[in-house]
Amino acid sequence: MPWAGAGERPPREGPAMLSQSPGVMNIGTIDAYLSKTGTGLQATAYGGEGEERENEAWSMYVERKSMVLEFLHSDLSLHLLRRHHKRIELLRRCSYYIEILPKHLALGDQNHLMLPTTMFQLIDPWRFQRMKEVGTIQTKIQLLLLSELLEQLERGREELVRFLETYDMVAFLSRWDVIRRRLSSLSEQMDHFLAMLVPGRLYVKHRLVSEVGVTKIPHIKLVLVTKMPVTFDRKESVAHKDWVSLKWFVSSQQPPLEQFELRFKLLEARAPQEKVHCGVMAVASDTCEIHNLLSDRSYRFTVKRAETYTLVYEQWRDSITLKTKPYLVEGPETPALEPCLSHLSHTQGM
Question: Fewer CB within a 10 Å sphere, N or C end of the chain?
Answer without folding.
Answer: N
